[in-house]
Amino acid sequence: MEIAYIPSPSRGVLHLGPIPLRGYAFCIIIGVFVAVWLGNKRWLARGGRPGTVADIAVWAVPFGLVGGRLYHVITDYELYFSEGRDWVDAFKIWEGGLGIWGAIALGALGAWIGCRRRGIPLPAWADALAPGIALAQAIGRWGNWFNQELYGRETTVPWALHITSSTDGRVPGYYHPTFLYESLWCVGVALLVIWADRRFTLGHGRAFALYVATYCVGRFWIEYLRVDDAHHILGMRLNNWTAIFVFILAVVYFVLSAKKRPGREEVVEPGADVPDGSAADGAEGDKGDGASAEVKAESDTDSDTDPRTGADPDGRADSEAQDKTEDKAGAEPTKKS
Predict the structure, then answer these.
(1) From CA 337, how far away is CA 38, in angstroms rounded?
(2) CB-CB contact of 174 with 94 (8 Å)
(3) Who contacts 245 (Cβ-Cβ below 8 Å, separation ≥6)?
(4) What is the per-residue pLDDT across 218-258, written as a single tens digit (0 to 9) for each?
(5) Under DSSP, is residue 154 helix (H, G, I), strand (E, B) or coil?
């Protein structure tokens, strides 16, 4: 008899009339918003413009969803293309099944396109997003809880997950809540990246590489607890091998980047250091110059001289010139004497 356990929801979808509200989808959406919110704060702190993170996320998120689904379908193709299965289910992303490896890989491609359009270095943008992505994963893992999937081995620990569904080969019982383990691990990864970024002033993609490497460490041991069907290579699950491979890539990049480009980017977004009101101030200045010119023109018009001929309409200029000539003539005899 279990004294304590984590209950599973009786169902992962609620219907608001004809509209289905799926817990898995909500977790993904909330995670994306958290990642963009935190990424925007970090981007502004590094000297970027507000809204840039969201603009690039418009490219990264769809690419990431497609990549995550492709990785899942390719590595678990028997769930959709074996006998008795319906291949149309491969498109039902709301039922679960996103591979983080494919999501990050193809999401990076989308982010690269967005960064290139804005003239922004991708590594700097990735550094700003790194802890937010980890938090998005932490939130998204709760979607597996709603679907009663991706749990671990049977256990009697007080925090065991109670699985009640018997569909798709599930056996009701108490299992390790691997979704919770990974969720907590991702929160720790986010905090580590934020701390390390402040402590060591990481730049040129090294904060993102740190996130990838530390996530792979956690994913490796969590995979050992899972009991869902998976492909094995030399006795290890495919995701274990993927974690090892990606971990090595992240560490190599971190080391080489630190040697080649130490420190952090001084400018992450061209023109971001120009105040937003500078253009408006310049426009106002142009208007002021125009007004000054108008005033000057008016003063010239109001003067005694005709701007076209240089003559005084009242004849005062001629009389003044004649008086000066007479004065000069009268002064000459005085000089001779």
Answers:
(1) 96
(2) no
(3) none
(4) 999 999 899 888 888 998 999 999 999 999 999 999 999 99
(5) strand
